[in-house]
Amino acid sequence: MTHIIRVVYCTQCAWMLRAAWVAQELLTTFQDELMGGGATLQPGTGGIFEVYADDELVWSRATDGGFPDIVALKRRVRDRIAPGRALGHADRAAARPAAPDR
């Protein structure tokens, strides 16, 4: 199955480079899953920064509270387009217990 990533970014906020970097990271990680589909950048306004996988919203700056940590975003995208696929270091980081407070 072919999958598509869409990154919607605010042109007023000059977030195109951030959007391009996110798209690049997702294309690199999910190159097999995105073959024939790809990733697109969609200009927007009003502070928008959203990431969609197959038209399903996986990250929204407004509702998720800021910009995505790339590892967390990759997990969300993976859960949508390639469930069960190992992400290597990203999965190990999620399994590592938090350091105790001092």
TrEMBL record:
Q: Which UniProt keywords apply?
A: Redox-active center
Q: Which Gene3D superfamilies match?
A: Glutaredoxin (3.40.30.10)
Query: Which SUPFAM superfamilies has this protein been placed in?
Result: Thioredoxin-like
Cross-referenced InterPro entries, in alphabetical order?
A: Selenoprotein_Rdx-typ, Thioredoxin-like_sf
Identify the domain of life: Bacteria
Would you indicate the residue range of the signal peptide? none
Q: What is this protein called?
A: SelT/SelW/SelH family protein
Name the species this protein comes from. Microbacterium ureisolvens
Q: What is the lineage of its organism?
A: Bacteria, Bacillati, Actinomycetota, Actinomycetes, Micrococcales
